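dumping this here before i forget
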Amino acid sequence: MGYSEFQLLQLTIGGKAEIWSSAGFDVMELSSGESICQLGNIQLLFDPTNEHGISSAAVNGMSGKIDSLKFVESTGLSSTDEDRHPRSIHPNGVTLIDHLVVTTTDCDKTTLAFEANGIHPRRVRTFGDNEAEMRQTFFWLGDVILELVGPNQSETKGQAMFWGLALISENLQVTADYLGEKCTPVKPAVQTGRKITTIKTRHIGITTSLAVMSPHTKTS
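structure:
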């Protein structure tokens, strides 16, 4: 498969793959003994020795650190694993990753670090009151949005970190019905015409924050 420049390929996520299976994600065990979950072009690679959410990302054409974010080479699938064709639609109805959320205490510093590696912001949005105004900066990693969130006025303490994922379901209410008490009620999202539910990851034992959204509309 051909990938666009800076396509997100893989995320390494702490925790046990079986917990994701319990929330309706189809998990495949590789010939290497590792477990992955395929979401569109992106593989979630599970690291049961780590309990701290997303530890690293593999992006086509990138390696090393951007600010404090770790980027690694993708491990890829063996020919044997590729023949098994992981599901494109999961039992819970999720199909794709909409965006990867990164938090930072210094939006300017982290944005400059991305720009220095050829990844340029596409849109900036601020929200909140003047005393606690927040900034969202949006980048593209191939077909996935990277959403950088932090205070509009930079802080000196803290560092950038991978925070969570927003996923897409073609029928969000079906997904919410499948998850039941494992998610919040469906409600309108910030983006016009879209809806969202949040998976109760702490209750389930998943180490990464997860939301599921309805597909993009022409106005979103």
